[in-house]
Write a structure and sequence with these properties.
By secondary structure, the chain is an alpha/beta fold. It contains 14 helices and 20 strands. α12 runs antiparallel to α13.
């Protein structure tokens, strides 16, 4: 413990000595020789860098903070020049300026009616900091932490996701001219003279699937899920996506990082919500190769997990997606988790890994390619173990919710298991069915939400585990349980606000 405080104190003194926020933090142009004008007809550039400012540090700084992916940010790469008039057939027209807390983006509209987006490769997290901190050294530290990301990692994802059966974007790398007419407004100044990714907004779905009827954000998707049983998350698809997240080390998977494709209704009228992952900025993240990075990743922000040949802190790695996992994987059992992991292993052979990682620019591959491939291979072999730990964490205290409609919940307790079934009406086919084992599950929380729900508890044998906690919610609900039933608690009211199943996601 004394060593920890000594290291923390030494780093605090070091960081405080850096003073206030640097006004000229970012590189002025991706081309180091930008003083010589790019010829008007040039269709590509060579020697461009994603962010060479991250590599302008001493060996002491790198030892304290971390080397991260600094050499890759400074590596010279080739990229085509972005020409909106010709990059797609019929050209692209600028639309709405957007972006999250870090990146800046510009929506683009194609002549074919498709929507595209171009976003900066480099990020500026100043918008994620309170205004009273924006003039302090903390902004320097947050900006410099972008070096923990691999600037070109998202280029590898399409090949890997396609093989795993997970929807994906198809980003392409471009250089934006400093004098590009479409990027001259103040809101787009971060684009000028920099590298950027262009991609179609609509994700590529597996070829066997029909075209979706609509694509919505997480708030709208879960609003529909809680309103009616006619909307159901495609749980096997979400599991594939989440295991892919873990395998690639993409820890930043909160609800704002997803869209949802509303698929055409089945014969039974059910419309599946297909998960569409977005924003692959944290793939191959590396933080803990310096004193500060190790302290942050192990003691403070444990979900900032470094990508390595072994899975470091799996609970933290998967933690940002807990909202989705708790609600969107609650019908799957351990066998399904393990089968999905093993199928993914088979679909990701060494040749495919090499092809995916070779999509990095040549200079970036020279720096990171071989060790990235080796890490992906090692993590692939450990996928069943990751899936098993992921399952056990979710199975410990699962939550099952109804909708705003009237439903019938049947909880059948056997000596060796508890089976939960949910159906829209007494004569309707169940839309939820799962058996829970006492060795895996401590407590099952069931919430009726809206409507006049009926909860039936049936007991066969002396089993009292797992405990059952039922919240009726809005409406006039009824509990039907034999007197001999043990370990069941029923409340007519809704669950506490911090625990309620139908709390909408924060994006």
């Amino acid at each position: 413990m004394r060593t920890f405080f000594s290291l923390a104190g030494a780093f605090a003194a070091f960081v405080l000595s850096t003073g206030c926020v640097r006004r000229q933090f970012f590189q002025p142009d991706a081309r180091p020789d930008a003083a010589s004008a790019l010829p008007a007809g040039a269709d590509s550039v060579r020697g461009a860098t994603a962010g060479r400012q991250y590599a302008h540090h001493s060996g002491l700084y790198n030892a304290l903070v971390g080397r991260h992916h600094r050499p890759t940010w400074a590596a010279p790469v080739a990229a085509p020049v972005l020409q909106l008039s010709s990059v797609r057939a019929g050209g692209l027209l600028p639309g709405k300026v957007g972006g999250g807390f870090n990146s800046t983006s510009l929506g683009l509209n194609g002549a074919d009616g498709r929507a595209y987006v171009v976003r900066t490769v480099d990020k500026d997290p100043i918008r994620a900091t309170p205004e009273w901190l924006r003039g302090t050294f903390l902004v320097n530290a947050l900006r410099d932490n972008i070096s923990a990301t691999n600037p070109y990692a998202s280029l590898t994802v399409p090949v890997l996701a396609e093989a795993a059966g997970v929807p994906h974007a198809n980003p392409r790398l471009y250089y934006v001219r400093a004098n590009a007419p479409a990027f001259q407004t103040d809101s787009l100044q971060h684009f000028r003279g920099q590298l950027a990714f262009l991609e179609e907004k609509a994700a590529s779905l597996p070829a066997a699937l029909p075209a979706p009827t609509a694509v919505v954000n997480s708030t709208k998707a879960f609003t529909a899920l809680y309103a009616s049983p006619t909307h159901q998350i495609d749980q096997p698809a979400l599991l594939r996506a989440r295991l892919l997240d873990g395998w690639m080390g993409d820890w930043d998977r909160h609800p704002g990082q997803w869209s949802w494709a509303l698929m055409p209704p089945t014969k039974g009228g059910v419309m599946a919500l297909m998960p569409l992952p977005k924003d692959r900025d944290m793939v191959f993240y590396r933080l803990d190769d310096g004193v500060l990075g190790w302290l942050v990743g192990h003691l403070a922000l444990r979900h900032w997990v470094t990508f390595a040949p072994r899975y470091k802190h799996p609970a933290g790695l998967m933690g940002s997606g807990h909202y989705l996992d708790q609600r969107g994987l609650n019908a799957l059992n351990r066998s399904q988790f393990l089968a999905t992991a093993r199928a993914m292993q088979q679909r990701l052979p060494d040749t495919l890994l090499a092809r995916a990682v070779h999509r990095l620019p040549a200079a970036a591959f020279a720096l990171e390619g071989p060790r990235t491939i080796a890490a992906l291979q090692a993590r692939r072999e450990q996928l069943p173990a990751l899936a098993d730990g992921f399952y056990r964490e979710l199975a410990r205290r699962p939550r099952i919710g109804g909708t705003d409609q009237a439903e019938r919940f049947v909880i059948h307790r056997y000596a060796d298991s508890t089976v939960v079934t949910v159906q829209a009406a007494a004569t309707a086919a169940p839309f939820y069915h799962r058996a829970f084992l006492p060795a895996e599950t401590q407590r099952i929380q069931i919430e009726g939400l809206g409507g006049d729900d009926v909860f039936v508890v049936e007991q066969d044998g002396p089993g009292r585990k797992p405990a059952i906690r039922i919240f009726g919610g809005a409406g006039t609900d009824e509990l039907k349980a034999a007197k001999k039933t043990k370990g069941v608690r029923f409340d007519q009211e809704s669950a506490p606000p911090t625990q309620v199943y139908n709390k909408l996601p924060e994006e």
